[in-house]
Amino acid sequence: MKIAEIREIATNELAERIQTEVANYNQMVLNHSISPLANPAQIKSLRRTIARMKAELRQRELNK
What we know:
Blueprint: H1 3-7, H2 11-34, H3 41-63
Helix pairs in contact: 2-3
C-alpha cells in the first residue's frame, strides 16, 4: 500500500486497519515457521506497510 493511499484513510479506520494488519502479519509469520510460504517476501512487504501506517498515524497525532 502506498503512502498516498494511507493518507486518504480516516484516522479511526487507520487504527483499526493497523490492528488487523498486525494480526495478519503475526499469523503469516507463524504459518511460515510451520511450513514455508510460497512467497516469503510478503512478510517483508506487510511489515513495511504496517510501519507506513504507524508512521502516518503518529504524524497525525503530532499535528493535532
